[in-house]
Write a structure and sequence with these properties.
The protein is α/β, with parallel strands linked by helices. It contains 22 helices and 13 strands. Helices cover 45% and strands 12% of the residues. The strands form three sheets. It has a six-stranded mixed β-sheet, sandwiched between helices.
Length: 528
């Protein structure tokens, strides 16, 4: 192995150098670093170490003048090389970290990195410098640490490993904290507009909350209308990027020819009609979040370009993006967290050659399944109430004197048992239509039924009309009531509204009993 030493040049090292020079040079160095000439035999930390341990290469971070760094490197020996840096404050952790990380990163990219034993000398420099060496040498760049004292050198053991001992425990504590969250998703910062306390919804929100904390690219999967954009906004609003732009781009709503320029922008003259340069979504979202809705609709050519943009540069963070505008000749950079969404089966699309597998894994660092409404029926009553209130607010704003329309019990049962193939979007549209078209003071079951695609709900098989998964808010009484409504309505229709005949069809002894059931279950209709 090739032994490579990294360390800072400290003021004690330069004072030791000064002791070997002429009086004029000695005074010049001492004026620069301060202090007096060291005692005879005190060679300074670096010289003491290289006198006892042989290194194939010595890289000396130098915050003094370039001339002083080269002079000191010559004194240390032929293996030494000064690396000139600029550091205003030798106790500035952030600046020190940036300098040291950059130097170690350059070293790690060398072709011979696999043959290098990285060695770090902790003694020269300030405590802040030593702390940064330990931080990086025990995590990203595993190293052997040396110290010196009074002319003696030794390997120092630091009894912990950040990536093995500390970070996993930190994440476990964070995860445990999130798992213990008893608050409703709507009470979490950023998730106020997501309604639902069902286990499947809490699980999705919990995963989204974690993804927001860790600034990871996220792929949202779910049926149309299930609330994927609402999740994307919640992730943005609960992240550290909440005060920066949130840019939403619907990849299915823009023609393939224009989508590239919408994403990356274009230069003046890039094509006919490009009279001036224009920023694209990646520029507009700099510092914030870019939401790519229906990303499965992108063609393969654009997928290739997205893949390149989503690959962070070697020296950048997870969200660093490098791209070019359409018609451009220079690279642009922005810091954008990408959240994508689709209602398509991307794995099937990959198998059919319509979606790039490498792009899928680049997007799906975290994958969140936004549940369909029929899979969280216990959330429907609260969700319907909130959506109906929104509809009533809109009607009050447009129509002075408008009276809010509440839901009847039968309408609530219909809403809870209907499968809602269009999910939350369909539920809201149905409530909006029912509230607007209702002729009475209360929204009836028939008003809601008329507002959905499957208008002839009563014609469905009885089991389909009320069947739902057990648990998640299942109510046997509600299910039985809905079945009775279905049978009562069918009997009244067949009997053309004659209650005695309907009672006979149902096996009920007296039509008064039937009449009581019709009233209790609020079954009505235009029986002809």
């Amino acid at each position: 192995m090739k032994r490579v030493l990294l360390t800072w040049i400290g003021y004690n090292d330069l004072r030791s150098l000064a002791a070997t020079l002429s009086e004029t040079q000695r005074k010049e160095i001492l004026r620069e670093v301060g202090g007096g000439v060291p005692q005879p035999g005190d060679e300074g930390p670096i010289k003491a170490l290289v006198g006892e341990v042989a290194f194939d290469e010595i890289r000396l971070l130098n915050n003094y003048s370039n001339q002083r760094g080269r002079q000191f490197a010559r004194w240390v020996g032929p293996a030494a090389q000064a690396v000139d840096v600029r550091l205003r404050n030798p106790s500035d952790y952030k600046a020190i970290y940036k300098i040291v990380d950059a130097e170690l990163d350059r070293l790690s990219r060398r072709k011979d990195w696999g043959e290098i034993e990285l060695c770090i000398h902790l003694s020269p420099g300030t405590p802040a410098m030593a702390a940064i060496w330990v931080l990086l040498g025990k995590s990203k760049y595993p190293a052997t640490f040396y110290q010196t004292y009074q002319g003696h050198a030794w390997i120092t053991e630091i009894p912990f490993n950040l990536t093995v001992d500390y970070l996993p425990e930190l994440y476990r504590r964070s995860d445990a904290h999130l798992e213990k969250q008893s608050a409703s998703p709507s009470e979490l910062a950023g998730f106020q507009h997501i309604i639902g306390d069902s286990p499947i919804m809490k699980k999705a929100v919990d995963l989204a909350h974690r993804a927001a904390m860790r600034n990871l690219s996220t792929l949202l999967l779910g049926e149309s209308g299930s609330g994927k954009e609402l999740f994307a906004r919640a992730i943005h609003d609960s992240s550290a990027r909440r005060d920066q732009p949130f840019v939403a781009m619907n990849c299915a709503a823009i023609s393939r020819e224009l989508l590239e320029s919408e994403l990356f922008g274009y230069e003046k003259g890039a094509f006919t009609g490009a009279h001036s340069a224009r920023h694209g979504a990646f520029e507009l979202a700099n510092g914030g979040t870019l939401f790519l809705d229906e990303v499965g609709e992108c063609d393969l050519a654009l997928q290739t370009k997205l893949l390149r943009v989503l690959q962070p540069p070697h020296d950048g963070g997870l969200c660093e993006r490098v791209f070019r505008r359409v018609g451009g000749t220079r690279d642009l950079a922005s810091n954008v967290r990408v959240i994508a969404a689709t209602n398509r089966d991307l794995m099937a699309a990959i198998g059919e050659g319509r979606f790039r597998e490498d792009l899928y894994y680049r997007l799906a660092v975290v994958t969140i399944k936004v549940p369909a409404l029929r899979d969280r029926r216990s959330d429907i009553p609260a969700l319907a109430a909130a959506l109906l209130e929104r509809a009533n607010v809109q009607f009050r704003a447009d129509e002075p004197g408008y009276q809010d329309k509440p839901l009847s019990d039968a309408a609530r049962t219909f809403i809870k048992t209907y499968p809602w193939p269009g999910n939350v979007r369909q539920l809201y549209n149905a409530l909006l239509q029912a509230a607007g078209m209702c002729s009475g003071k209360v929204i009836s079951r028939e008003d809601i039924a008329a507002a959905v695609a499957d208008v002839d709900f009563s014609a469905r098989r009885p089991a389909e009309a009320w069947e739902q998964p057990l648990g998640d808010g299942f109510s046997l009484q509600d299910a039985m009531d809905e079945l009775q409504r279905h049978l009562l309505r069918s009997a009244m229709e067949q009997a053309h509204g004659v209650k005695a005949e309907a009672a006979r069809l149902l096996g009920i002894d007296h039509y008064q009993t039937l009449d009581a059931k019709l009233k209790r279950l609020r079954v009505s209709g235009n029986w002809k």
